[in-house]
Amino acid sequence: MRYININQRIAYKINAAIKASGIKKVALSEKTGMPSSTLNSKLRAYTPFTVEEVFRIAEVINCDPILLLSDQPQRQSLAA
């Protein structure tokens, strides 16, 4: 199994959640107040996301921030 560090895992999960939400990255940048260049750098895992940034993104894309930060597979709903 190939090792992927936590920053890469979080960036991958956030990218997937952004795609699933249908929001454009430019709109996400505007709504979170994060410059586009910073957002893109973080989405490529060049620099890590802060917890505050993850929560702001999660709020905009209507996603549970805990799912973005956890090691568990991402699910649409926690309801059984």
TrEMBL record:
<dbReference type="GO" id="GO:0003677">
    <property type="term" value="F:DNA binding"/>
</dbReference>
<dbReference type="Pfam" id="PF01381">
    <property type="entry name" value="HTH_3"/>
</dbReference>
<dbReference type="InterPro" id="IPR010982">
    <property type="entry name" value="Lambda_DNA-bd_dom_sf"/>
</dbReference>
<feature type="domain" description="HTH cro/C1-type">
    <location>
        <begin position="14"/>
        <end position="68"/>
    </location>
</feature>
<dbReference type="InterPro" id="IPR001387">
    <property type="entry name" value="Cro/C1-type_HTH"/>
</dbReference>
<protein>
    <submittedName>
        <fullName>Helix-turn-helix domain-containing protein</fullName>
    </submittedName>
</protein>
